[in-house]
Design a protein that fits this description.
The chain is of the alpha+beta class and 95 residues long. Helix content is 51%, strand content 14%. It has helices spanning 2-12, 26-29, 35-48, 76-94; strands spanning 18-21, 52-55, 68-70, 73-74. The protein has a two-stranded parallel sheet with strand order 1-2. The protein has a two-stranded antiparallel sheet with strand order 3-4. The chain is globular, with a radius of gyration of 15 Å.
C-alpha cells in the first residue's frame, strides 16, 4: 500500500505519524459503503506500525448536525471544538 510506504518513509525521516479519523456526521456515515471496514483497516495499520490513532467517528460531535457544514465537513464551531479535543488527546498521550 502506498499509505504504508508513506508511513515507513516518515519513520525513516524521524517524522512522527499520528492517525486521526475526524468526526463525520452520523447520518453521513451511512452513505460510506465500507465505513466500518475503512476504520478497522486504519486501526490495523496503526497497530502494525505502532502508531497512535484517534478515531472521532463515534464522538458526540458526530451526533450534532449543528457542528457540521455538511456531512463530511465541520463548520467553524465544530472545527474549533474538534481541534481542542484532538490537542488535549495528543497532549494526554504524550504525558
Amino acid at each position: 500500500l502506498k499509505f504504508e510506504a508513506f508511513i515507513e518513509d516518515c519513520k525513516l525521516k524521524s517524522i512522527e505519524v499520528i492517525l486521526v479519523v475526524p468526526p463525520i456526521y452520523i447520518e453521513g456515515q451511512k452513505f460510506v459503503l465500507n465505513h466500518n471496514s475503512l476504520i478497522e483497516n486504519l486501526k490495523l495499520i496503526a497497530k502494525k506500525h505502532q502508531l497512535s490513532i484517534f478515531d472521532y467517528t463515534k464522538d458526540s460531535i458526530c451526533m450534532s448536525k449543528e457542528m457540521f457544514y455538511n456531512a463530511g465537513h465541520l463548520n467553524k464551531n465544530g472545527a474549533e471544538i474538534f481541534t481542542k479535543k484532538i490537542v488535549l488527546a495528543i497532549q494526554k498521550e504524550k504525558n
